[in-house]
């Protein structure tokens, strides 16, 4: 229309354009059919070439028809239309600049250009949204794979999408607002463009690297609309809405907000978005778990990108964590807390800016104060200097805010702070300057208060997040590990607890979790800083040494998995160990343990320096530091074949090696010393001898002889001194006896350790060597036979396939070792046999031998002797259980439980009749003994060494134990036991009689067994059983079983504690279905009649119940044969199977 008497209004719905509009409102006149669209598009294309972008005024109906028939037309038609519309918008971007600056533009021309802009932008945005939806649906159908199935057009949509966005950005960069009257752009036009942008952001791949061009274009287009077209409030609301529904957009919107606030100068957008987050109620957040996680991630990433803009909103951030941290999902807490890490540097910059002198007078005054005397400076130190110290302290200890003596919101604390701060110098200038300075100091104090509040919330979150390290969700564990690393890097109080707690996760079967922990430790401890290789090596050694100091054995084993490749710092470690670098004994021990970790990867690291190890740690001064000697022995153990699997001849050193000379001398001399660390050294030394020495039994025999001789000499010398003195004080005599008891205890501990490792040596090393030699012999015979032996080999093929040849050979070897243990180890000519009567005497006479250390060592050594053979075990088993039950020392009882657990694994048939005595320790009065008992029994039951029987009810009692750790162990026992078939179902009737646990579900079988329990239970147990039945998740099948077992509990209904719970069952079941409702109504009536008749002594015929309503059970009383009186011996596992283990 040449007169341009109409105006184009952007519709709310696309279909509104075909309806009759208002005065001078454009209405679509001709909706072209799908078949006619190609020819109409050709006319559109020709008009574009001849008339330019204003052709859209005449051919709008063609583009609109494509939208109307979007589902029916071919993809090629849509693409042609899209290309034309992009050309129209681009053409307008080229032609409009000269028109916009023209002062002679008529109203008709302005209306013409405005209608062209609105029409083209409307069609382009709507068609883009349609193509984006088609592309998303196609990706879902094809699983994201691009190819012919997707259509070539959709494959190219990524590049076409960028062209659309670039055309729109180019247009909106112009100041097209002047086309509107009074530059008031209608909201519908802006919404049309923003809806298209947000539609593109909904794409799941928008955060991927390949989508970066599209993402950047959308961000810049929205930035233009926010800055020039009043989209600030709408953007804030839309960001919140999309974060709630699309978790992956947290990083995208963080980048967008950063760009809008910096490049486009819209700093208010951050405050707008954060205020929207702060206005969310706790109920609203609790319903949206993923949304909260997205909010927290968004805050964290924005703080990293623009920390200076986040600082004014720190109060809202504090409230977000303060009110919602404990009730929100784990990852939300972690992400929200991490934003502090990004804000700390900017906080320090802000503090410094606030503290900088602003005027020339202040600068001159500062120079004068620096030039004054020291005493005057101390007296005149003002609050600015105090605040500078606070800022410096914050930089070093970013989270440690204990230096602050105030807390948020307390007037008393504020007054205390003001009292502690030095007085502000009085200045003569105007009062306004003083007020400004005071206001600045008040703001600084409030600022530090907010900082403290935030830091305390992060510290409180540490204990919560530490528990998440062992959740079953991999992503949560990874986020928790990342949080622990972040807070540790910023020196948060108690942050090291999480770092240590995550260490055992290096053994996780989940590769992602294991990699996360290894990466975390390498980031914290194995990423040295320095200019030279030497400096980096020293820094790395310092970090690892800090980690190794006071580390437990389990921690050391975990670290071996992480730092076994620390060969680059070997030289520095040797220097520290040998004392070339001045260091403490703790760091020497850490260095030698780290060398052992390096030796796991390369044996020569330690093997080539054995002499150094012997001279430094095992030489003349060994008795001064048995801990260093022990750690050195642990390091040497890493070069043995027990650490690395070797198929060749075993690696062993000759008996006369300097190492074994030093070890035997150190162990023997330590026997007659009273050193608390000698025993741990002795155990590792004996272990190393059996791992590394040729004929270790001969070495240990000489070791015991020498130790016994030294002990006898010491006793003889003490007796002679007492005899010569004539008059000896009682105190000195008692101290000598105490010393002799300690030395005897150490000798007995050495005997037990030798006996244990002798058996282990026979069953592991000797057995493995026998198998290796047999394999070599068979290979050699096969080679000697050659072609001539093929026929014989064919005849024995069947036997080889069945494994008869190898099995018979292994059985022979196992029988040989068993005979050695049974007949030779404790023969009269063997030194070990000389100590067994002494052990039995000490354990059997606790009144005479009452020294705690002697009793403990003797009981432990006797249990190690019992591991040698079944005969020794049978002879002393009664004595060991007597010690277990009657010893007054908790440590002896705990050790006895552990030893008897090992004996149960080794000789199950001997220990099986004593099972009840083991379970009895679950009720020990000492918590440590109960904890040991439940731990040992859990291992035995879960590994099927002990059969699960009624005694497990003793474990159930521990569910209400006062000790929380014992509670968790008992609960873990039942959780693991629940995975074994129906073990829990068979045990619960007995357990319910002791403990009601409403959290455990049960089926109809449990209902039946619980009803049978009424027949043998007491009055109190009737009520417990009835309550337990009422708490079960009852179904139709369970209700039927309840009816069938009527005779079991009908005579108990006189008890209100039985009658009321059973009546409540019917109330719960009535709503399930009609048939069950009728059955429940009948059952309720019978319960009421029977219960009331029993209570009021009314005579009601019993057949009314049992015949007319309930069929009687076949046999409610358990038969005699169902209650086992004699336990069945546990089948002995084959010797060959144990040797393999």
From TrEMBL:
Gene3D superfamilies on file: Leucine-rich Repeat Variant
Composition bias, Acidic residues: 357-380
Alphabetical UniProt keywords: Cell cycle, Cell division, Chromosome, DNA condensation, Mitosis, Nucleus
Subcellular compartments: Chromosome; Nucleus
Residue ranges, annotated region (Disordered): 355-383, 410-437, 768-802
MF terms in GO: histone binding
Domain Condensin complex subunit 1 C-terminal: 891-1003
InterPro entries in the cross-refs: ARM-like (IPR011989), ARM-type_fold (IPR016024), CND1/NCAPD3 (IPR026971), Cnd1_C (IPR032682), Condensin_cplx_su1 (IPR007673), Condensin_cplx_su1_N (IPR024324)
Domain Condensin complex subunit 1 N-terminal: 77-235
Composition bias type Basic and acidic residues, residue spans: 768-787
Pfam families: Cnd1, Cnd1_N
GO cellular component: condensed chromosome, centromeric region; condensin complex; nucleus
PANTHER family: CONDENSIN, CONDENSIN COMPLEX SUBUNIT 1
Function recorded in the entry: Regulatory subunit of the condensin complex, a complex required for conversion of interphase chromatin into mitotic-like condense chromosomes. The condensin complex probably introduces positive supercoils into relaxed DNA in the presence of type I topoisomerases and converts nicked DNA into positive knotted forms in the presence of type II topoisomerases.
Family per record: Belongs to the CND1 (condensin subunit 1) family.
Name of the molecule in the record: Condensin complex subunit 1
The organism of origin for this protein: Haplochromis burtoni (Burton's mouthbrooder)
Lineage of the organism: Eukaryota, Metazoa, Chordata, Craniata, Vertebrata
